[in-house]
Amino acid sequence: MKKTCGVLLSLVLGIVLAGGAQAEGTLEKVKKTGVLVAGVTDDAPPFSFMEKDSGRIVGHDVDFVTALAAKLGARVELRAVTGRNRLSELIDGNIDILAANLTHSQSHARESVIDLSDHYLGIGQKFLAKRGTIKTLKDLWGKKIGAVVGTASLGCASDRCEGGTIVPVDDYVQGVRALQRGDIDAFTSDQVILVELLASLPLGDYEIPELQISEEQYHLGVRKGDSAFLDFVNKAIRDMQQSGEAKTLKDKWFEPRTEGRGEAYGAVLRRASARPRFLGVLLKGVLAPKAEVSIFSLDGTYLGKGNVVNVADDEFYVDVDEKQYDLVRSGFLVTMDMSNEMARDVVIRHQELLRSVRADAEKEAERIRAEIEKEAIAKQQRAHEIDMLRERSKLTVQEERALFFRGYRGYR
Fold first, then answer.
1. Torsion, CA 253, CA 259, CA 265, CA 268, rounded to 10
2. What is the pTM of this model?
3. For residues 76 and 33, is the Cβ–Cβ distance under 8 A?
4. Which domains does the chain have, with CATH numbers?
5. pLDDT tens, 130-148?
6. How far apart are CA 149 and CA 154, in angstroms?
């Protein structure tokens, strides 16, 4: 029996040591291959999710692990994981790092099989209220505060919002409607949810104040015993927090846009009648009137700036820099609130679509030119016929006069 136990113990130790040896090589492996394989979810916006128009996984966690990879001089290779397989994918060595909504578990079962980094993101419970009405906890005294039944937010509000009256609601839609009707003075939930709810309300009337009553901290996962890689990840997180890079990424994905704007782009259709104006078609997002935009050619070359003049449904008018007016063609990309790198990526991913826009625009322009030419020919024909009628009319008058004078002379 002792011998059997000893064999099993040796096997377990062998597996652990083998896993440790593999994990210890992660940092060097990434440096050598130039690739950091990251496990992320594809259905948890805004952490990480599948973008509909491109089919790519995007989000806060994607941007964060991309920044980590850059510090190693590597690129990111994304692997979609689920709640069921995320730990095994990391343990089995199929991914190098896990960014998939990991928090400290109360049972510590998760931390017994993988190592967690320092927290790289903190998302808290906040409030949705009319602009300027809630700033501190004192402002909640005597107020009615809504929260969804069965959520942790309801219990947290009861514990932290002393002096306020907690009003349970059945769901988030009911909570927003109660806030709009004035039945409650504030609605509390996770910040991520509140950002989505705020987007459905009239711009400028409501806000999410800075006041926060709880925080959930998120961590990155690495293989158990992967100390060299874990040290690198923790240092990178600290550096990003100190430099403000972490806050910039958080604000990008989790904070509401005060101007109600987001990344948007469209394609040029044709020149408008007023120089230097162009007509375009919207492809993603909403181009804001008077917004500054950038123009890119079909090979991703940046041409210059422009300004949105008018937006109607899925079409828009934009005035471009006078110097670039003669360079702009159909199918060129018009972007708002996007970096040059992002715009070039759009050009690459939507090259076929942009070229089809250009081809359709050229066909339409050719059709218009043909109609103009046809009309011009018709005008020439009508003008010729009029001239002929006039000529015949003149001959008729002359003939009448000749007949008249011949008749007059014969009478005399």
1. -170
2. 0.55
3. no
4. 2-122+218-254 (3.40.190.10), 123-216 (3.40.190.10), 261-412 (2.40.30.20)
5. 999 999 999 999 999 999 8
6. 6
